[in-house]
Amino acid sequence: MSHARAGTDRREPQSHHRQQRGEPVAEIVPASPPDLWSISETAAFLRVPVGTLYQWRHRRTGPRAFKVGRHLRYKPSEVRAWLDDQAA
């Protein structure tokens, strides 16, 4: 007797398109992936808590962040430039 719960099926989703033999597999790879930091990486670089970055973003005082989907991303060059401006 199987007691599988709903939503716990670990099988791979089936594709409606089947690859033909000898057909090359297409890979989706960006031409040059952007060098972006997550909020955790940015916080580690600046040595501040993640919560501080969220506060700075809300107050519009911290380095500029971009939304990628529902995630915040930072350009390292802009974070460094913002940091240099803070020292001035």
From TrEMBL:
Superkingdom classification of source: Bacteria
Annotated protein name in UniProt: Helix-turn-helix domain-containing protein
InterPro entries assigned to the protein according to its UniProt record, in alphabetical order: DNA-bd_dom_put_sf, HTH_17
Bias type Basic and acidic residues, positions: 1-15
Pfam families linked to this entry: HTH_17
Occurrences of domain Helix-turn-helix (ranges): 38-86
Region (Disordered): 1-30
